[in-house]
Amino acid sequence: MTDKFLSTKSRAKANWMTAMQTLVAALFFSLLLSVSPARAQNLTMEQIAPAGFSEKKELNVPATLVAESRQVQAGQSVTLAFVMTPKPTWHGYWENPGDAGIGMSFDWTLPDGVTAGKAQYPVPDTLLISGIMNYIYKGDYAVLVNLVVSERVQPGPLPISVKSEWLACTDEICVPEQDELSIDLEVVGPDAAVALDSAFNAWREALPRRLGSAATFGVENDIFRLSVPFPADIEISDPYFFIREDGIVDYGAPQKVNRDGDRLIIETAARGDGLEQISGVLKVGPDMGLSLNANEGKVEMSGIPFVGNTNGGLGDGQSQLSLLLLALGGAVLGGLLLNLMPCVFPILSLKAISLAKAGGDQAVVRRDALAYTAGVVVVATALGALLLALRASGAAVGWAFQLQDPRIIFVLLALVTAIGLNLAGLFELPNIQFGNKLTQKDGPTGSFWTGALAAFVATPCTGPFMAAALGATIILPPIAALVIFAGLGIGLALPFLLIAFVPAIRDRLPRPGAWLDSFRKIMAIPMLLTSVGLIWLLGRQIGTDALGVSLMFLLLVSLFLWWFGSGQIKGVSRGAITTAAVAVAIIGGIALLPGDDVMDERRVASASTATLPSEPFAETRLAELRAAGQPVFAYFTADWCITCKANEAAAVQRQETADAFAAANVAVLMGDWTRPDPEISKFLEKHGRAGVPLYLFYAPGKEPVILPQILTVGTLTDLVNPPERMADAR
């Protein structure tokens, strides 16, 4: 795939590891020192579908490799054409696909002395769907590549092969496609006659002409302007500038065009700057364009506005705003529902204690609610920003990626255990002093970090409304995606905001009293139960042997905190020693965790012996099963996903489901996303999902059905035994 969407596996892994290490350190030490003892998934217009069959006849945008001549002389070049013939309603993409999509990639296998040049694309068209601008080809088109044959190549056969990948889409779904193409050429002597294929003349005519003069561009005050030399007496229609470099302009924004004598001035919204030179294609008519390079300089908007369409005839930014508002509403609603998830409740108990201590005091309740909201929104947005940055760097990650790393799980386990022991009264955390009083036990800082912890722990519990909202962040511009992540945080904090700012609710808060200390100790129970859940999750990721070592370090952390608490009873200060000892225990536990190369064979064996046996998910295996005409149920899960585990217990791993699937010969593929898996991450993205769960059913010869995120036995058995079929049988 293109560098814009994918990178090498090693670079992605390095970026992901670095981000995890930074997140581990910041999370543990900030939260442990700041929490007080009292509080201590369809919005994408391009719904992405699974890959089609590898056979050319099954491709939606099939490619054929054609040579302008089968004979080539040493020291000369020959042009190859990738002739793309989209099926009706399907389209392919330009080299820069715009807001969404993927251009073509080429992995050549060439004989010694033969080199392949840069691909040459015809002038593209625009396609704007819900504010998402795509640069596409709807009809047949050809991508040309020149092969240069060295003078030292001897006469004889010249086998050429290439593995090419591209994306085929309709207005509703996208399918990543690939093919391995080959062609046999022959190196002939200098006197041999070389016949040329006349079809290449038309394909070259579709390429943009090179502009002889350099253009000038400038970015100022979030406005991009391009000045292009263009004779005043030449007619143009529907001018549009397709930029090759990503991240410079807002693709979905309208383009204004002025004619100023022998120059065209194009203006649109900027997304970034920092480049000294850009390139692109200026479309000046149907299938007519100019390929140009532009140097950075000062460009003023002058001349007479061009009267006509400058946005491909497909709308304006209003549709993009509608998409953002829909996604934002889903994120707020999804965040609100997260408060009902078991993984979030123990953290909310900290906030409940805080509200109880406030006793209905309006100023205190509002202050703490706003601080709690700030913590939730900051962490949710920060996780979203880190997710977008990792994707941009080439890492294949999704929402809740932080819980795919056992080091994060271990730090969370130590933190939650410490909070549970603190609530139980084993020790108290003193105020932290940095010259001035930075925080108090019952101040807004504690509320902020309680919100931060709630957001961090809540992210694996992606509910039904969040799946679609977070899926929209895959294709929306980064700023809009961050707004959605912030909306998720607002939804999570919304109950406490209502308590703080709605007097009728706030007046029902109980007054502080002796009961509060008992309530605090009771709240230690769900916090310690969360520790038990994290221990189970850690064991699933690293195995029982490594878990035993980790628990030894967790025991050390608990013993150090107990020793610290006993000193508090005696009036002895042990804070500095305890902090250092706990830090060493945490670092030691992390250092001894197994690396990513450790395979958990137990999990594979468990999947094959479950009530509903399954195979590990792989796109190649999915293609094989579909090619054989076998129905397939593919589901994607993770051990840290509460919704996933509930669905498996209630519907997937039930004998009724297993019997129905066995009778219908349904193959079951399970994508386990507990640990990082780039193939699963990319597959989820293709379906507009940023996380799990995802459930798909492939009936033979039909498009996949995306099932609801809350499953029942009837939902699954009806896939192979629909009610109308059972009625016919009776």
UniProtKB/TrEMBL annotation:
Pfam families to which the protein is assigned, alphabetical: DsbD_N (PF11412), DsbD_TM (PF02683), Thioredoxin_7 (PF13899)
GO-annotated cellular components: plasma membrane
GO molecular function: protein-disulfide reductase activity
Signal sequence, start to end: 1-40
Protein origin, superkingdom: Bacteria
InterPro entries according to UniProt: Cyt_c_assmbl_TM_dom, DsbD_gamma, DsbDN, Thioredoxin-like_sf, Thioredoxin_domain
Ranges annotated as spanning the membrane: 323-348, 369-388, 408-427, 448-473, 479-502, 522-539, 545-564, 576-593
Native source organism of the sequence: Parasphingorhabdus marina DSM 22363
Domain Thioredoxin: 592-730
CDD domains, A to Z: DsbDgamma (cd02953)
Keywords: Cell membrane, Cytochrome c-type biogenesis, Membrane, Signal, Transmembrane, Transmembrane helix
Keyword Cell membrane among record annotations: yes
GO biological process, one term: cytochrome complex assembly
Main localization of the protein described in the UniProt heading: membrane
Membrane topology reported for the UniProt record: Multi-pass membrane protein
Compartments where located: Cell membrane
Biological classification of the source: Bacteria, Pseudomonadati, Pseudomonadota, Alphaproteobacteria, Sphingomonadales
PANTHER family, per the entry: SUPPRESSION OF COPPER SENSITIVITY PROTEIN (PTHR32234:SF3), THIOL:DISULFIDE INTERCHANGE PROTEIN DSBD (PTHR32234)
Name by which UniProt lists this protein: Thiol:disulfide interchange protein
UniProt keyword Nucleus, yes or no: no
